[in-house]
From TrEMBL:
The species this protein was found in: Olea europaea subsp. europaea
Protein name: Probable leucine-rich repeat receptor kinase At1g35710
GO cellular component terms, semicolon-separated: membrane
Location within or outside the cell: Membrane
Alphabetized UniProt keyword annotations: Glycoprotein, Kinase, Leucine-rich repeat, Membrane, Receptor, Repeat, Signal, Transferase, Transmembrane, Transmembrane helix
Lineage: Eukaryota, Viridiplantae, Streptophyta, Embryophyta, Tracheophyta
Length: 396
C-alpha cells in the first residue's frame, strides 16, 4: 500500500480526481487543498487514516466529495461548510467522532449527505432543515442523541431518510408527514416513544417504513392502510397494541419472519397482498388476537397446531392461499370462534370432529380443497351455523 503523493497538488488545472477503490493508505495530503479548480474528488474505499484536512475547505468549486469507506478519524471539519457548491458529501463508514457541525447547513446545494456508520455523537442539528435541496439524508449507525428535529419538515425534496441505529429519543415528529416525496423512512433501533403519528399516512410514495426496536406504544394507525406503495413495514419490538390493518396493498415479505412478534395485537388483516412463507409456531404467541385475516396471499405450509392456544380468536380467514396438510383438530379448542374460512387452498385429510365443539360458529367455508372422508353429524352441535360450504372436495 502507498500514500497519495503530495505532488498532485501541482496539477492546478485538475477538475476531477478519482482515486477510489485502491489500496491507498496514510493521511489525505493537506496539499490537495491547493487544487482550486477541482470539482470532483473521490478517495473512497481505500485505507486512508488520520483526520480530514481542514485545507479541503479551499476547494470552493467542489461539487462532489467522496471520502467514504476508509479509516478516517477525528471530527468532521466545520470548515467543510464553506464548500457552497457541494452537491454530494459522502463521509460514511469511517471512524469519525464528535458532533455533526451546524456549519453544514450552509451547503444549500447539497442533494446527498451520507454520514452513516461512524461514531458521531450529540444531537441532529436543527439547522439541517435549511438544506432544502437534500434528497438523501443518511445518519444511521452512529451515537446520535436527542429528538428528531421538527425542522426536517422543510426538506420537501427528501426521498430517503435513514436515522436508524442511534440513541434518538422522544416522539416521532408528526411534521415528517409533510415529506411527501419520501420513499424510505428508517427510524428503527432507537429509543423513540409515544404513538405512531397518523400524519405518516400522507407519505403516499413510501415504499419502506421501519420503526422497529423502539419504545413506541398505542395503536397502529389504521390510516397506514393508505400507504398503497408500501413494500416493507417493520414495527416489531415495540409496545404497540390493538389493530393492524394493511389489507389490499402490494406488500411482499416472508410472513414467518416479519410477523412472528406483536403479541399485543387484537386484530390483524393482511389480506390481498403478496405475503409468502409459512405460519410458524411463533404465531401461537398472539394470545390477545381476536381476528386473523390473511386471505388472498401466497402462504404455504399448514395451519399451526399452536393456533389452538389462541383462546380469544373469533375470526380465522386464511382463504385463497397455498396451504396444505390437514386441518388441525386443535382449532376445536377455540370456543369463541365465529368464522372459519379456509377455502381455496390445498388442504387434505378429513374435517376434524372437534369442529363440532364450536357452538358459536356462524360461518364455515372449506370450498375447493382436497378434503376426504365423511361429513360428521356433530357439526349439528354448532346451532349458530348459518353458512356452510364444503363443495369441490372429495367428501362422502
Amino acid at each position: 500500500m502507498s500514500q497519495i503523493p503530495t505532488s498532485l497538488s501541482g496539477l492546478t488545472s485538475l477538475r476531477t480526481l478519482y482515486l477510489y477503490e485502491n489500496q491507498l493508505s496514510g493521511p489525505i495530503p493537506p496539499e490537495l487543498g491547493k487544487l482550486t479548480s477541482l470539482q470532483d474528488l473521490a478517495l473512497g474505499t481505500n485505507h486512508l487514516t488520520s483526520q480530514i484536512p481542514t485545507s479541503l475547505s479551499g476547494l470552493t468549486s467542489l461539487r462532489t466529495l467522496y471520502l467514504h469507506t476508509n479509516q478516517l478519524s477525528g471530527p468532521i471539519p466545520p470548515e467543510l461548510g464553506n464548500l457552497t457548491s457541494l452537491q454530494v458529501l459522502e463521509l460514511s463508514t469511517n471512524n469519525l467522532t464528535g458532533q455533526i457541525p451546524t456549519s453544514l447547513s450552509g451547503l444549500t446545494s447539497l442533494r446527498t449527505l451520507y454520514l452513516y456508520e461512524n461514531q458521531l455523537s450529540g444531537p441532529i442539528p436543527p439547522k439541517l432543515g435549511k438544506l432544502t435541496s437534500l434528497q438523501d439524508l443518511e445518519l444511521s449507525t452512529n451515537n446520535l442523541i436527542g429528538q428528531i428535529p421538527t425542522s426536517l419538515r422543510a426538506l420537501t425534496s427528501l426521498r430517503i431518510l435513514y436515522l436508524n441505529t442511534n440513541q434518538l429519543s422522544g416522539p416521532i415528529p408528526p411534521e415528517l408527514g409533510k415529506l411527501t416525496s419520501l420513499q424510505d423512512l428508517a427510524l428503527g433501533t432507537n429509543h423513540l416513544t409515544g404513538q405512531i403519528p397518523t400524519s405518516l399516512s400522507g407519505l403516499t410514495n413510501l415504499k419502506i417504513l421501519y420503526l422497529f426496536e423502539n419504545q413506541l406504544s398505542g395503536p397502529i394507525p389504521p390510516e397506514l392502510g393508505k400507504l398503497t406503495s408500501l413494500q416493507k413495514l417493520g414495527l416489531g419490538t415495540n409496545y404497540l397494541t390493538v389493530r393492524l390493518r394493511i389489507d389490499h396493498n402490494q406488500l411482499s415479505e416472508n410472513i414467518s419472519e416479519e410477523f412472528g412478534v406483536y403479541p399485543n395485537l387484537t386484530f390483524m388483516d393482511l389480506s390481498s397482498n403478496n405475503f409468502y412463507g409459512e405460519l410458524t409456531n411463533v404465531w401461537g404467541r398472539k394470545k390477545q388476537l381476536q381476528a386473523l385475516k390473511i386471505a388472498k396471499n401466497n402462504l404455504t405450509g399448514g395451519v399451526p397446531l399452536e393456533f389452538g392456544s389462541l383462546s380469544q380468536l373469533q375470526v380465522i380467514d386464511l382463504s385463497s392461499n397455498k396451504l396444505h396438510g390437514e386441518i388441525s383438530k386443535e382449532i376445536g379448542k377455540l370456543t369463541l370462534l365465529l368464522n372459519l374460512y379456509l377455502e381455496e387452498n390445498q388442504l387434505s385429510g378429513g374435517i376434524p370432529e372437534e369442529l363440532g365443539s364450536l357452538s358459536h360458529l356462524e360461518n364455515l367455508d372449506h370450498y375447493r380443497n382436497g378434503l376426504t372422508g365423511q361429513i360428521h353429524g356433530n357439526l349439528a352441535n354448532s346451532e349458530q351455523l348459518h353458512y356452510l360450504n364444503l363443495s369441490f372436495n372429495y367428501l362422502s
